[in-house]
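Sequence in, structure out. First:
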Amino acid sequence: MFGDIARFLLNTVFTLFGAALLLRAWLQVVRLPPYNPVSNAVLHATNWIVLPLRRIVPSTRSIDWASILAALIAAVVYVVLMVAVTGVDPLALWPTLLIVALLTVVKWGLNLIIWLTILMALLSWLNPRSPAMPILFQLTAPFLNPLRRVVPNLGGIDLSPILLFVIVQVLLMIVTRAAVQLTYFVI
């Protein structure tokens, strides 16, 4: 029971933190202004790890490499702690754990896309004039706009979020299966 609780807490904390780090990198890619409440909260939550890494790894063009590296570091710590909770020595599995950590970062990114898409879809139905809508639209537009060109608009109903949700869910299944098979094979 203690192991289940520890795994749940580790998964929750690290998934939220990893998503915040990836969101920080994505905010820079879509050039979201730093003065809005979402950007401000993400920056404050992640500054403690990203700012020191920026001295080592600078940003290039619109890619925040320090945030991506911080997400990878968080994923490595997460995977090592998850393996340690099971009672296995993480150092014996080091190369495999690095691959699993990379897959974990991809999983966090895919989960972030799902969360943002669901939130945008819900707000578009419940409160389309919400102050969060422009932010969510800007964050999800790079994923939804190509799908909008393919999926027809059915009388004002946009089906592209549903298609994006399905695509990302399939990708999540593939990434999760790969990570689980790597860890089961080694453990």
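Second:
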Amino acid sequence: MALNRDFLMGFVSGTVVGAVGYRLYEQNNGQLKSLVQNNLPSLSIQAPRADLTLEDLVSQKERLDDLIAEKKATAVR
């Protein structure tokens, strides 16, 4: 009997917390989207993929390698 009661209390608690979390998410949906969009790194490609030359790809790769190295250096500190 205790196992069923504990399970039921856990299930009800989880449902309530999930419903409250979903409601808060829905109420703040616009703020969350703008927060995520503003904090995404901007990776811009100057030309369409079909028009990229080997030199363009190599320069973008070097730029990305530099960004990765900077992130690793700041993460180590």
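Remark: The two ends are 54 Å apart (CA to CA).
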